[in-house]
Design goal:
The structure holds 2 protein chains of 2 kinds. By secondary structure, chain A is an alpha+beta fold. Chain A has 17 helices and 20 strands. Chain B has a single domain, classed as Rossmann fold (3-Layer(aba) Sandwich), CATH 3.40.50. The chains are: A alpha+beta, B alpha/beta. Chains A and B meet through helix 1, helix 2, helix 6 and helix 9 of A and helix 2, helix 3 and helix 5 of B.
Chain lengths: 544, 146
């Protein structure tokens, strides 16, 4: 894992002191709420329905047990004993007092963490593949590149007042586990024909009110030009992105309105200019960062066989583990989606336990996924059973990864000041309806995603089944959509028709899964059947 | 003129800035004011006769002026670059790093707060282009590999 040096630490410490001063000025009445708002937002502090919400950055979703323990400590000391892992691999605390916020940031800085740029119209936390460094299918570990981008984007003087927020994802495999093409910039690391490592750029993806899949604008950017190219992409956006309407201000609208070719032409022109300025860190810097991400000291003689005689363990292994690049090891997914629970929530005790388990079983490493789960990336197969038993005792072993109950849901109207409808009760009711794990496994991979408003934080556009909560004349109403995907088969879901009330949407989900069970062929997933047979059979089941 | 904040050791120009259109139409003016929607590149052919460029921030959240400032410096502009408008203390450090020499905020700023803001961060992660003291300010990655 990356370790701060004196420079990184000095920057984070300066930020803590700056925010302490800003908070003091606010509490003393020297700053109005209007003046304070952009300052607190740059530090991840939102004013929500009931309290302040603090969003803490977990760069590219990677953390160690000491950092995880700190997240538990904050939940216990400053919140109500729990935290909420988010779709951008961060964690949010929903019950924060303003006067505590500087102390929380100070506590975080002691374990090389921060809340810098977790909100505001700036470059947000860089996200990545949660299996980075462990997946059998990656061509390299994308995290050093993400760390290079993290440092470049931190306190960027030119790009801290963009037209709108800006999200970057970096992956290094053909399988996309990070919804890369639904980011403002999606980067896929690839080898070119000469065998050199570089970055393929996709620009202008996103969800929100106007979902778009980011088009590829350059097939190869060499490592020593990465920052130049990113600067060029951002400069064109900063200068020409719309500022007249916040709903049209994301880069996807600029790329769409200019057209991919014209946007690309402008970026290339700017890129040629950037290259004359020497803004890119030397390859030695990427090499320095890469040294922090060595393979753990695997036991290369570890047994690759697994005893699956315990049927419950077998179900968990089948569903929640993923092939590791090292024989004898597995990637273990901890589902934060118990039946009837709040997707992504974990108690302080659970957070501490996961930290302990990471230390004991996974070379001190954890990951947060964009599907709001936790990963122990390097677990010896011979120790999986012991790990599973401890997870099960703590309610952390739902065997439902990528099944219908492994839902993404935004906080919705229970917490969020933007929401039009509640998301959590809908997630809970669907979870209860499909609580039988056998039934879930029969339905197979089925990504269900729920947003409580049009801003789409719950990724409903990218759901095999998507649900959008709206306010219809003061009543919560839920629209159903089908056929989206945030993976390498990226697509945007289409709405089925008129919406449903809270109980009606649970019935509607059941009806579309019945259509799938009736019409599927071979080993088709839900989304494959939808793509083959189209919307009509589903509409007939829903509305006739 | 007394409210102008100078970031470095140059002295503020007292030239009166005209609009970009006015500047381009009159060959004897030396100071120009740029609005966020205007293309700073129109000014590049005329840099040899510009002593002062004012870049207007009608609202602090409109960050186009930062790019305009960088483009000017990257193309060799050495005259005075001044931020005007809704300039708040918490943006000053970014302005300094983007090549501004001075600011003339709509609302007067507390002098101590200005000094704190300008000196808050001990290092920078990015290389930017500007006149002193920005020229030669080395980003962290460069210090690491010296």
């Amino acid at each position: 894992m990356y370790k701060y040096d004196e420079y990184d630490q000095a920057m984070v410490d300066a930020r803590v002191e700056e925010f302490r001063d800003q908070t003091r000025r606010r509490l003393a009445g020297e700053l109005t709420e209007d003046q304070f708002k952009p300052l607190r937002l740059m530090n991840g502090l939102y004013l929500q329905l009931h309290a302040y919400m603090l969003r803490v950055a977990i760069p590219y979703g990677t953390l160690n047990s000491q950092q995880m323990n700190m997240l538990g400590h904050i939940a216990r000391k400053y919140d109500r004993g729990y935290g909420h892992f988010t779709t951008r691999q961060n964690i949010q605390y929903n019950w924060i007092k303003l006067e505590d916020a500087p102390d929380i940031l100070a506590d975080l800085s002691t374990v090389e963490m921060h809340a810098i740029q977790t909100s505001g119209n700036c470059i947000r936390n860089i996200s990545s593949d949660q299996f980075a460094g462990a997946a059998a299918d990656e061509i390299t570990d994308p995290r050093p590149w993400a760390e290079l981008l993290r440092q470049w984007s931190s306190f960027h003087p030119e790009f801290s007042y963009l037209p709108r927020k800006f999200k970057i994802a970096v992956i290094a495999s053909d399988e996309d586990r990070a919804a890369m093409r639904l980011h403002d910039i999606g980067i896929q690391l690839i080898h070119n024909d000469a065998g050199k490592l570089g970055a393929k750029f996709f620009v202008g993806g996103g969800m929100g009110r106007t979902p778009m899949i980011g088009p590829e604008i350059r097939d190869f950017v060499p490592a020593d030009e990465l920052i130049h190219y990113a600067e060029a992409c951002l400069r064109v956006y900063n200068r020409y992105g719309r500022r007249d309407n916040k709903y049209k201000a994301r880069i996807k609208i600029l790329v769409h309105e200019l057209g991919k070719d014209e946007y690309t032409r402008q970026v290339e022109e700017e890129f040629a200019h950037m290259k004359t300025l020497g803004l890119n860190p030397p390859v030695a810097e990427l090499a320095r960062i890469t040294e922090f991400f060595p393979d753990p000291a695997y036991d290369t003689t570890a047994n690759d066989e697994l005893d699956l005689t315990d049927p419950d363990f077998r179900i968990w292994v089948e569903q929640n583990t993923h092939p590791h690049k090292q024989a004898g090891y597995a990637i273990a997914n901890i589902s934060l989606k118990p039946t009837g629970g709040i997707p992504g929530d974990a108690s302080a005790d659970q957070i501490d336990l996961m930290a302990d388990l990471a230390k004991e079983y996974s070379f001190d490493e954890l990951r947060v996924t964009h599907a709001q789960n936790i990963v122990l990336p390097h677990v010896k197969k011979s120790e999986l059973y012991a790990l599973w038993q401890k997870l099960d005792d703590a309610g952390l072993a739902p065997a439902n990864l990528d099944l219908i109950s492994d839902m993404i849901a935004c906080p919705g109207l229970d917490y969020c000041s933007l929401a039009n409808a509640r998301s959590i009760p809908v997630a809970q009711k669907i979870g209860q309806r499909f609580s039988d794990i056998g039934r879930q496994k029969e339905l197979g991979e089925l990504k269900l995603k729920i947003s409580g408003c049009i801003n789409a934080c719950g990724h409903h556009h990218a759901g095999h089944i998507g649900i959008l909560g709206v306010d219809r004349k003061g009543v919560e109403n839920y629209q159903l959509s089908l056929g989206g995907s945030g993976a390498e088969d990226v697509s945007l879901a289409k709405i089925t028709g008129p919406g449903f009330d809270e109980d009606g949407i649970v019935d509607a989900v059941e009806k579309v899964t019945d259509v799938y069970l009736r019409d599927r062929e071979g080993d088709e997933r839900f989304v494959d059947t939808y793509r083959r047979i189209g919307m009509v059979p589903f509409k007939e089941a829903l509305y006739d | 003129m007394t409210d102008i904040i100078i970031f470095n050791d140059r002295s503020a120009s007292d030239a009166v800035a005209v609009s970009l259109e006015g500047f381009l139409g009159a060959s004897n003016t030396t100071a120009v004011r740029i609005e966020p929607g205007e293309d700073i590149r129109e000014l590049l052919p005329h840099l040899d006769r510009v002593a002062l460029v004012e870049i207007n921030f009608p609202v602090f959240g409109d960050g186009r002026g930062y790019s305009a400032a960088q483009i000017l410096r990257e193309h060799g502009f050495t005259g005075e670059l001044r931020a005007i408008g809704d300039v708040l203390v918490d943006q000053l450090a970014y302005m300094l790093r983007c090549g501004f020499d001075s600011a003339d905020p709509d609302q007067a700023l507390d002098a101590d707060a200005v000094q704190n803001a300008l000196n808050r961060y001990p290092h920078v992660y990015q290389k930017t282009t500007g006149t002193a003291p920005i020229s030669g300010r080395r980003p962290i990655w460069e210090i690491r590999h010296e």
